[in-house]
Amino acid sequence: MATQDAMERRGYEVIAVGSGAEALAFLAYTVPNVMLLDLHMDDMNGWEVLGAIRNDPRFAKTEVVVVTGSQATVGSRVKVLRKPFKIDALMAVLESPAQKTMAS
What we know:
This protein has helices spanning 2-9, 20-27, 46-54, 87-95; strands spanning 34-38, 63-68, 78-82, 101-102. With 104 residues, the chain is an alpha/beta fold. The chain is globular.
C-alpha cells in the first residue's frame, strides 16, 4: 500500500485493516489517535463504521479522516480527504488540526 508506506516513512505507526468488520473488531480493543476511513467498503457502509466510532465515548479524541470520492457532507469533527489524493494532501490533513477539508 503506497499510502501506508508513505505514512510509515513519515514516522506514523500504521495498522491497516481490509474491511469495516475488521475495523470494528480492531477497535474493540484499540483506541487509535487517528483513523482513515473509506466510506465505500465491500462488506459494510463506511457510515456504519463512522456511526459506531462516534457513538462510543472511547473515541471522543480519535481524529477521523474520511476518504471519499463523492461530494458527501460528513458533518463536524470529521476531516474529509477527496479521492484521488496525493500523499502531501493526506499529510496536510493529518498535520493541520484546523483544516476540515482538503482536496488533492
